User: Fold this.
Amino acid sequence: MSNTRIEALLEAPFVMTIDGTSVTAPKTLGVINPATEEVIAECPDATEAQLEAAIRGARAAFASWSQTSFEERREIMLGMADRVAAAARDLGSLITAEQGKPFAAAVTECESMGPGSLRGFSEMELASEVLIDDDARRVELHHRPLGVVAAIVAWNYPVHTALQKIAPAIWAGNTVILKPSPFTPLATLRMMEQLRDLMPPGVVQTLSGGHEMGRWLSAHPGIAKISFTGSTPTGRHIMASSAESLKHLTLELGGNDAGIVLPDADVEAAAPMIAQSAFNNCGQVCHALKRLFVHRSRYAEMCDALVRAVSTMHVGDGMEESTRLGPLANRMQFEIIDRLVTDARDRGARILCGGEPLEGAGYFYPPTIVADIEEGAPLVDEEQFGPALPVLCYETVDEAVERANASDKGLSGSVWTADTEAGARVAARLECGTAWINQHSAQPTANHVSIPFGGFKASGVGRERGLLGLLAYTQPQVINLRK
Ligand code: NAD
Assistant:
């Protein structure tokens, strides 16, 4: 992708989509490239009046959209998927510019992950059931749409996360108001502009703005459901402000995933996979491996293997082909990682590699492995959401399971062993929504549209993807007919 092309993509104004038309706002928010710390574009900061207009548009559109057939919706969704995939390089370069991830990963997000949600949900059957059918009566169960869904999105996978919410919502007959993160609105706004003519006005609208916009959406009585991806504290706020209007909620929140390496594990094979899980997207993945528990008999070996595995991970601007780790996506996250690693060092943990921000402009932090660290250190107890992996030592499997489960989070977890059946039994004891054996957040199943994903405990409410995810955008209605 040439610099001239990227400059042209950034120069064209970024607009919102309200009721099928382009809308700007009286104020704008600057968007920063985390690789340079420069403001690269401005996005509209939507007003409350614009939110009201969008809600009116979404409610009006719901009346007819909810009555369309699955065939009509499928045709539109497949058209949307093709158009996003065709624009993947342009959208991908915007993601790299606003979020930092390597360009190839950004293109994959737009070429296959996002479109995969649209295509996958449009094949998912939302069947009605006949519960009773006898001489006297017929009782049927139907899945009705909810109304207007607000999709509130984080900054780590802006396009994928948005489409993962839009696809099931519109497939089930709802209309959507999408709010991207203020850190990463650009690719999303451009994508929605390009999809606009494919669907009736008001079916999917995009409002960019700050956290205030999220608060307005979650308190508004015209919104039937909030589908949220973001941090656990924000999830709590949303639940509280949704209470008054009793909204339906899907909350995909933070994680602090534990991996347990059993004494019989193949350490050489496991280390690169563990490193890939912990450092993919610069560690900014909700289901990344974030705490590694290793049996004492294999501890030194695993630490060495992890250092070797990350030694080839080049840190740099996401537009450079050799880059495996881009910058952290924003200053806030960069400062969190720096604080957690500095604290770990100060309390006597061993920094095996990395451990200092790179000099110069940009939020660059190298892959960092931290040994001889325990619970009580914030790097272990808090979600780091960045490229620093604490490696903890344990003596017995029961102890490892107990320590893995001691977190208030429970998104996913993993067990590493030569005995996969025994591993599966240990995995079943982990308090988390997805338990992996000899892998962790690994493709092709990590984001598969038919596999439900979500967390135990403070990692979330409900599930995304799969039939469970789709049903969360519906409400059951019983039709009870006396013959
Ligand atoms: P965040 O909670 O700060 O923001 C997420 C979104 O919520 C943004 O669009 C933001 O503007 C909006 N928002 C902020 N305050 C709000 C409020 N009071 N009411 C309504 N909306 C509000 O999260 P983030 O920093 O963007 O994302 C990082 C977090 O997201 C991490 O904890 C990560 O684990 C989590 N995450 C979870 C998943 C998952 O599927 N479980 C996926 C990705 C990220």
Observations:
- The chain has a mean pLDDT of 97.
- The two ends are 66 Å apart (CA to CA).
- Residues 224 and 371 are 47 Å apart (CA to CA).
- Residues 152-156, 179, 181-182, 211, 214-215, 218, 229-231, 234, 237-238, 252-255, 286, 383, 385, 411, 460 surround nicotinamide-adenine-dinucleotide (CB under 6 Å).
